[in-house]
Amino acid sequence: MSETDPSRAPTTVRWWHWVWVAPLALLFRLWLATLRVRLEPSASGVSGKALPPSVLVLWHDRLFFAPVITQRHLSRPVCALVSASKDGGWLTAFYNLMGIRCARGSSSSRGTEALMALARAVRSGCHAGITPDGPKGPRREAKPGVLALARVAKAPVVALGIRYHRCWRLRSWDRFGLPVPFSRVDLRLERVEVGSDEAEACRRIGASLDALSGD
Length: 215
What we know:
Layout: H1 18-33, E1 36-39, E2 55-57, H2 66-73, E3 78-82, H3 86-97, E4 101-104, H4 111-123, E5 127-130, H5 145-153, E6 157-164, E7 167-169, E8 177-179, E9 184-192, H6 198-213
Parallel strand pairs: 1-9, 2-5, 2-6, 3-4, 3-5
Antiparallel strand pairs: 6-9, 7-8
Helix pairs in contact: 1-3, 4-5
């Protein structure tokens, strides 16, 4: 079955479902606005506002905080990789309302199409956002899709270190974190030198994100 088969088209959210998505997006905007964000200096000299089109990576359990980075700390728009599943449809609707563009696909469905869509976004001046352990894990284990995108787009890989000082954890595969309102969040951006060895590059990405984000 080819990647362009209509049966593999990404699941979208019907228009009437936006009645639920829009109020949730407003609630989350208010929630995120209460967080006290501290932008830490980068050891590799990365500046969010001056960052060239890049492949941005963050752990899946830190996705809730992604809109804050897009809205406050980056000068370029972000196109995020989102699963083609039904859950991905909801996330796409939510992200669109939060100002994040989406490319639909994963390693198991529409992977090539999603990769090319992200590469085109980077070439047009956007950042590409990827969770290297998503969409189903294993938790905090970086997979090589990031490297393929960086090579095709000829873009640097930048780790988004997001450290919650207080958060609630969901009982999901990734132990998804929800920062407590009015709590502090430390943000740090670091460039990861990936090299040509795939296994070593995945290890470096994972080690960088773990060191920057904590538990």
